[in-house]
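User: Could you go from structure to sequence for me? I need the amino acid at each position, not a summary. Structure tokens:
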């Protein structure tokens, strides 16, 4: 897997970054996605920011475990990534995101955080 990543990056292909974080930060996801895309990265983001309204489907019961299957899809997105970027304004990380971070780390994926970049910019002064 690392050989594929190295050859892809050496061949001029963009780094693949999977975004993780709370769905409440949809606007921040859009900004981060745009920034990385403009830098030439391939960005994999959340498939949806709210659960779809499905006729006759009770999300509280979720008997078909649709939430679980959607989580599995996001784990696949993490496996596809060269790195994971956590969209965590103010440092907020919920339970689902914590599981995703742990999974990424178990795979040896680098994990970066929006909140840590912002605090580094504040400490170091404005970046131009």
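Assistant: Here is the amino acid at each position, in order:
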């Amino acid at each position: 897997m690392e050989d594929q990543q190295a050859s892809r990056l050496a061949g001029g292909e963009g780094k693949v970054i999977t975004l993780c974080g709370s769905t409440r930060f949809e606007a921040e996801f859009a900004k981060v996605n745009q920034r990385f895309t403009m830098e030439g990265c391939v960005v994999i983001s959340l498939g949806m920011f709210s659960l779809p309204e499905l006729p006759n489907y009770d999300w509280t019961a979720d008997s078909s475990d649709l939430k679980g299957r959607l989580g599995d899809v996001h784990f696949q997105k993490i496996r596809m990534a060269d790195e994971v970027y956590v969209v965590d304004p103010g440092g907020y990380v919920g339970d689902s995101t914590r599981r995703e971070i742990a999974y990424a780390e178990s795979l040896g994926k680098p994990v970066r955080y929006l909140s840590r970049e912002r605090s580094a910019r504040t400490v170091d002064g404005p970046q131009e």
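One structural detail worth keeping in mind: The beta strands are 16-21, 42-44, 83-87, 111-113.
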